[in-house]
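Record type: monomer structure entry
Structure origin: computed from sequence
Chain ID: A
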Amino acid sequence: MMSTVLAYTSPAIGHLFPMVPLLLELKARGHEVHLRTLPQHVREMQDLGFHTEPVDPRLLGIEPRDYLAGSIKDSLASSVDTFTSRARLDAPDLRRAIDDAGPDVLLVDINAWGARIVAEDSGLPWATFSPYTPPLQSKGTPPFGPGLAPMKGLPGRARDALARRLVVGAVEKLMMPGMNSLRADISGGALPPVRSADAFFRTAPLMLVTTAEPFEYPHPDWAPDVRMIGALDWEPASGAAPWSELPASPGKPAVLVTTSSEYQADEALARTAIQGLADQPFTVIATLPAAGTGSAGASRASGPADLGPLPANACVEDFVPHSQVLERAAVAITHGGMGSTQKALAMGVPVVVVPFGRDQHEVAARVVAADAGVRLRRRKLTPENLRKAVEEAQAKADGAHRVAAGFVRAGRAVAGADALEQLLAGRFLGAGS
């Protein structure tokens, strides 16, 4: 049965690009795909055959400020403020899109909180799309945020209970009154309050999560409504120089250095990598996509000049298709963004993760647990320490290949499309059934 799918993303490249392979798979199966996303990518998405319109441009003015926080708890609280503020705009935005597209099923970004409430209230089949490990509780898994390693037995349970109370519990106390006020206001009182953040994130009958074991921890208690489908990757056509034209040392294995596409003051990662690997037998390619100046007034890197004189084996670009570099890479150095980290691992490239905030501490913990790379804490980020971490990571290629195989086994876009079609056909039994 061919149907109309309406997808809605939060205003973040790192949430749009992973969704694209799934939308392409749905289109290939004959479904009509409508998309609401970042204004600057509307034409690009239209060229892929999606009926695309921009999200409310006011959403772009509500920028994350979590990188200014002084603790994990404060960072999570800042993210709550961002998503709550956006909810007042993305809720009516999705209602308008539903009126325009007349969809049979909705696919809504996990970070679009108001749109998720509208989807729940709409009566339509709907799913949440999460391009990062969602902050859900799970037996034997540490609480989301600090990036703690799993610990078995009574000591692990005691540690996790304490961390959950101090971090997640404190943020949840701040989050729930506003969240339930939103639910009441947006639904006109039709939706009941939720008792926890976990309950809110699991209101959808289906959640698609773009990761899989062995990168992700086992979560048998997530089933059936939460499905891990493996990493999804898509890159736009780019006029950026191909590998052969990059102004760096030819014939040497690459080290890709990534920084966040949503600004978080992580230019130091690129600067340190360039300094630490200047005399090493690598071609260092650093990408700095978050250029310009943010609403918070922080200065952002805008090109090589901001990083000082570059050694002969390095170049800096706002954007380079990562797959071109990863095909020749020995190691990737990432800020811990789920997209860039999993992209490297999906190609069997081990990683050095230097988390700056957001979900990046959790990503780093999973890299270590999968033995697919090395975590270097931000406070220890020096040229010498980063060089040593790269040397250590090169020995983790087997772990990276195991992760890549796990992503393939999960089914990726095919598995996601299958689950959505089951939802449409009424054969899917999840939390909202």
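Annotation 1: DSSP finds 13 helices and 13 strands in the chain.
Annotation 2: The chain has two domains: 4-230+411-424, 243-407.
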